Amino acid sequence: MTSTIVCYGDSLTWGFDADGEGRHRYEDRWPSVVQETLGRRAHVIAEGLNGRTTAYDDHLAAGDRNGARVLPTILATHAPIDVLVLALGSNDLKRHTGGGRAREAAWGMERLVEIARNFPYGFDYDAPEVVIVSPPALVETTDDNFDAMFGFARAESLQFAELFEALARRLGCVHVAASEICTATPTDGIHLDAENTRKLGAAIASTLGTLT
């Protein structure tokens, strides 16, 4: 039986390439690695959006980056879903979105889990198993724009793994800590190069392999 896995995330899920021309090759994006690894056992759907937050508005963007507002539509679109992978939090560190603290990201992630578990799926479909992926820690960069957006929050980003692990335990979710698997590129201090993106995909696939 093939499991449907929805990967709901931000630019790391989209495959933002800080060293290239916008986006990593399809095969280097972590949802693609998950699909390649699990093969026919899974149908992996990548729902990544640059700048997406867990639950906060970004009025500087053309599209809706509020993950909590968009998630119900995604759930309805792809139902039935066996596993929902929530990979968000970094963009909550912007002062004009989540306020610049990792704890806001944890609160937002809790809201996403609540939405996923209480959504009226219809047709007697069950709510999906939820996997939470905490973001990698930020690193120093010489990119002025990214440093202005995130540089002040490097210490906050070190709290992601601990906060999301505590949340996962309390809510009964599976947690994957990206900071223990991969390292952000100093090109912009937040995104992953192709090698680290594939590392993240392999780790997530290993976790999902026990759920599918």
UniProtKB/TrEMBL annotation:
<feature type="domain" description="SGNH hydrolase-type esterase">
    <location>
        <begin position="7"/>
        <end position="194"/>
    </location>
</feature>
<dbReference type="GO" id="GO:0016788">
    <property type="term" value="F:hydrolase activity, acting on ester bonds"/>
</dbReference>
<protein>
    <submittedName>
        <fullName>Lysophospholipase L1</fullName>
    </submittedName>
</protein>
<dbReference type="InterPro" id="IPR013830">
    <property type="entry name" value="SGNH_hydro"/>
</dbReference>
<dbReference type="Pfam" id="PF13472">
    <property type="entry name" value="Lipase_GDSL_2"/>
</dbReference>
<dbReference type="InterPro" id="IPR036514">
    <property type="entry name" value="SGNH_hydro_sf"/>
</dbReference>
